[in-house]
Structure formats: structure tokens, C-alpha cells
Amino acid sequence: MSAIPLGGQAEPDLAAIPAEHAQPRQARRWYRQPALMSGLILFGIILFLAAGAPLLTSYNPIAQNLSQTLLGPSAHHLLGTDQLGRDVFSRLLYGLRTDLRIACIAVLFPFCIGTVLGSIAGYYGGWVDTIIMRLVDIVVAFPFYVLIIALVFVLGPGQRSIYIAITLVGWVSYARIVRGEILVAKRQDYVLAAQSGGLAAIRIIGRHLLPNVITQAIIYAMSDIVQDMLAIVTLGYFGLGVPPPTPDLGSMINDGQNFLTTHWQLTTFPGLVVVVVGLALSLIGDGLADLIRPGQA
Amino acid sequence: MSTGPILSVQDLNVRITTRRGIVRAVDGVSLDVAAGEALGLVGESGSGKSMTLRAIIGVLPAEGRITGGQILLDGVDLVPLSQAELNRIRGPKISMIFQEPMSALNPVMRVGNQIAEGTRVHLGYSKSKAAERALELMRRVGIPDPERRFRAYPHEFSGGMRQRVMIAIALSCDPEIILCDEPTTALDVTIQDQILRLLSRLCRESGVSLIFVTHDLPVVAEICDRVAVMYGGQLVERGDVRDVLLDPRHPYTLGLVRSAPDVEHVRDSLVPIPGSPPSLVSPPSGCRFHPRCGFAQDDCTVQPTPLRDLPGGRSTACLHYERCAEALAADGIGHG
């Protein structure tokens, strides 16, 4: 029989005391993250172009000039004109403006709804969790784009339909992320301490748990904007997006497709802009993730 | 006792459902704590000390459930209360200090706000009044330069300072009783001593009662008035701290005392208790300690052994407690 001595004199657990927070802070400074920095610069340029569209181009993006259709790039028209004689560069900037604005607004609704439902599911568990997660499973069972396109098709084209469709489909990712994080975090002692301090569940979720877990959702939101942007462009391409003549990258790509062999710039440049926006936001998301992860104690 | 107990736990039962079966983590525990009294609750890991505390304040793990008994705080039974009703009591009447001060503080919330939060929620303090109160508490628990520390985050504090913050949080709404779950175990020895002195000083100053869970007997001797010893989810001995630690009436307490180093009585060797703690899924019949007990007789295995009162306001669950006195006499470490 083995003799197990009882812990009469407590051994101080020195290893657990400080150290983990002692890592050099300089290494985590945000401006030293190359991914984050290049993403921010790139996105800054994109924002400048989108916001400054009226200053950067003198052409009205919807003004047609049927005497000057399908011109090649020149000093007058930087990227030429389309089949209705509209300035492509101007349409590009205004289209970027529309799509970016819709994407950034569209990401907010699923973010909020998913975070609330995810934290309720994670914190309470039990049947509440089961119901919410079954709903998530139902939505996840459909491919993202197929479901969005189907929803917008049913709701009819336009911005409102895009917001509704993205919200209905997008909240599940946030709910999953936040639920998982809350499941881990709620086992921490500080939650126990808050509970034994007589704090209400809603306060514990809002003030103690969410500030600890929301970073993951924010990082995901960065890549989600890209996905939403692509969805909006896809919808525009199918003629389900923002109705013409409002400039939109998706409809520009579609319009230019008919002239692909002769006027490649009509489709290529809107496509490139989408790629660059996606790159910038992904870099920011990755950079934020790198920045935040090592700091989590 | 001159005044009635602040907290009276009667025949508390806690069961935890696990994959290996139902664990009877707390089995018929009864405790009384008088106003201003410090009660030590000792026992080895897994003896149900922490579960008893968590049951009292209503933060059992999701798998755990109170299956019987009463928890009377100021005469009100806490067991049937809803979470919302409990939330009005936790904080202003009862609060808790945890073992790991680093994980029991919210890492992304300023320390001052964590201390102030309770008074804002429970006492309806304004932001500025709560901040003032938090600063006062920080001063009381000995945090230097509270104005500057108020805005700091927990990771900027040392282990001892974090535990002081926890104590300030526990004190913030002037509770009648504070449950301490091994508050000094994670600290190094010199800091342990500071925290213990602080706790017993605060206790004396404000008349708050303590239940102090630990497996550290010298700590119990230093801070507690009375002590209850737990083994296998049950109480095995209860009484004044001097009586119990110097003259145990249960072989398990005797084993604990013998296995603890002691500066005052230098012993030739520390005597470990043989064997390992009992399974609480299927505990041994009769006295739960009998498989490890050197004094066990045939009758120990037959019936459960509830606490029986002895003269001198103490109780034991041992049927053959006289043997302990004999063994102590043989050791030569009886009344020192």
C-alpha cells in the first residue's frame, strides 16, 4: 500500500504566480505587426478612394454619354468608358463606395444578433443552448452564397433585402464563435466570483464575459466583411443587388462581360478592386488575431 | 453561545452527477457559525470542503445539486431560493474569496471597477460614491497608492495584492459572513502570513464571520476559533480549535496533525496517513475512514457513524475516540 502524505503544510505554488504576464510588451505593439500594418495602409487607401470619390473624379458615375461609348483608357477617362459612355474610373470609385458601405453595415446586424444568441446559448446551456444551436445547424446546412442568393431572390433585389439576407445567414458564425468562447470562459473563477458576488446573469455576460471573448468575434468580423462584400458583388453580378443605375462592382463586372474580348478593362478592374479590398481586410483580420492571441493569459 | 448563529447549515447533502456515477460530495454536513466567529473547515483534497462552500453560496457546478438539508442565513433558508433572490443576498450578506486570485479577477476589467461593482449593484451607489468606497476599501486591505492602482488591471498586481483586491471585493457590501476557499494556498509563505493577519484583523474590526477552508493546519490554528474536520464528504470532528488540533478525538484528525510539520514541537518524523481518500461514488460502509484507520474495530464497518456530542462543546464521529488520546500520549505531543 502506498503511503500518501497529506498536505499538512501547503506548498506555495510559486510557478503559478506572475511570469505569464511578464512577456515583453514591445513585441506586441500593434505597429510592429507587418500583416496588420500593410492591411491598414491598404484599407486606408481604399477608404480614401471610396470616401473621396467626388473629389477624385469629375464625372457623374450615372451620366450617360452615348457619343463616347466604349472608349479606351486615356487622360480624360482613366479607365475608359463603358457601353453607355459612363466613366469607368468614376463608376469604380462610386461602386466601391456603395459596396463597402453596404458590407460594413451588413456585418453589424449578424454580429450583434449572433453575439447575443451565442452568449445566451453558451452561458445558460441546457434547452436554450439546444434550440439556438439547432437553428444554427439548420442555417449552416445550406451553402452561404446559395442561401443568400435564394433569400434575396425571394425578398426582391435591393439594399434592404441584402441586409436581411446577410443577417439571417451570417449570425450563425458569430453565435458559434461566441458560444464556444463563453463555454470556456464561464468555467473561469472570475465568473464564479461574480456569481457569488450576487451579480445578475445579464451583467455577468455583458460586463465580465463578453469583454473577454468578443475579440474573436471582432477578428472574424473582418473576414466576414470580405465575405459579405463578395456576396454583394455576386448578387450585383446576378442582377439581384443594388438596382441600376447605382454603380456597383458586381453589375459592372456583368456589364463588361459582353465586351470581354475587346474591352477587358471593363470587367478586370472591378474584379481587381474586390480582390484588393478582400486582401486588405484579411490582412487586418490576421494581424489582429496575431496581436491579440499571445496576449490572452 | 451567547448569540444565535449567523449561518446554520443543517444536514446538507450535495450530489454531483458524473460519468462514473453519482458522487455524494457533501453528505449530511451540519455547521453553525456565530457572529464574528472564524470557523475552519479542514480536510484533504476531495473531502467536500469546497463543495460545501459553493453549496452555501449557491454556485455549485452545473452537474451538482443540493439534494437535502437547509442553509439558514439569518434564519432564511437559502436552498429553495431562486438565483434572482440569491443575488440579493450574495454580496450584501455573504461573499466568497477564492483560492486563485489571478483567475478570480476579471483580466480585462480595471481593479477599481471590480471592487466598486458590488456596491453599485447592491447598494445603489453612484459611480463616484462607489469609486470613493472602492478607494477606502483598497486602503483598508493595504493596497498602497490606491488612487493610482484603481485604474490598473489585475495582471499588473502581484499574487498577494490580487488576493487583497479579492478581499476588498468580498468586503465591499459589508457582508455578515465571508467564505474563504483556501485563500492563501496559491501564495508564497510570507505573503500567506500577511493575508492571514489582514483577514483576522478585518474580521475583528468589522465583526464579520468567516468560514475558512484549508488543508493547512497551522493556518487554522492561527486564524480560526473553531474547526470542523471533513472526510469523505462528512464531518468527522468539530470543536474549539485548540481542543481539536492539540487533542484530537478522531483518528483522521490525529492523522492530519501527525502529518503536519510543526515548528514548536519538533518531531522525529512526519507520519503519513496510509491509503488514499475514499471513492464518494461508492463510499465504504460504516465509518468512511475505517479502511485507513489504525484503530478500526469490527463495529466500525457496520453502521454510519454520525457526529456525537462530547463534553466540552465538541463532537466526533469516531466510535473509539478514546484511542486517540492513548495514541497521543504515546507520541508525547499531547497538550503542549
- H and E string of chain B: EEEHEEHEHHHHEHEHEEHHEEEH
Please list the strands of the largest sheet of chain B in the order they lie side by side.
6-7-8-3-9-10-13-12
Helix-and-strand structural type of chain A: mainly alpha
How many discrete structural domains of chain B?
1
Estimate the mean pLDDT confidence of chain A: 82
State the separation between the terminal residues of chain A, measured CA to CA. 41 Å
* Topology-level CATH name of chain B: Rossmann fold
Give the mean pLDDT of chain B. Answer: 87
- What number of domains of chain A? 1
Task: Provide the low-confidence segments of chain B as ranges.
Answer: none
- Tally of helical runs of chain B: 11
Shape-level CATH architecture of chain B: 3-Layer(aba) Sandwich
Describe this structure in words.
The complex is a heterodimer of chains A (297) and B (336). With 297 residues, chain A is an all-alpha fold. Chain A has a single domain (32-53, 78-295), classed as MetI-like fold, CATH 1.10.3720.10. Helices cover 66% and strands 1% of the residues of chain A. Chain A has 10 helices and 1 strand; from the N terminus they run E-H-H-H-H-H-H-H-H-H-H. In chain A, helix 1 crosses helix 10 (265-292). Chain A starts with a strand and ends in a 5-residue tail after the last helix. The model of chain A is unreliable at 1-26 (pLDDT under 50). Chain B is α/β, with parallel strands linked by helices. Chain B has a single domain (5-102, 174-331), classed as P-loop containing nucleotide triphosphate hydrolases (Rossmann fold, 3-Layer(aba) Sandwich). Chain B is 32% helix and 24% strand. Chain B is built from 11 helices and 13 strands. In chain B, the strands form 2 sheets. An 8-stranded mixed β-sheet of chain B has the order 6-7-8-3-9-10-13-12, with helices on both faces. In chain B, strands 2-1-4-5 form a 4-stranded antiparallel β-sheet, covered by helices on one side. In chain B, a hairpin with a 2-residue loop joins strand 9 (226-231) and strand 10. The two termini of chain B are 27 Å apart. The interface between A and B is large, with 37 and 65 residues. Strand 1 (3-4) of chain A pairs antiparallel with strand 11 of chain B.
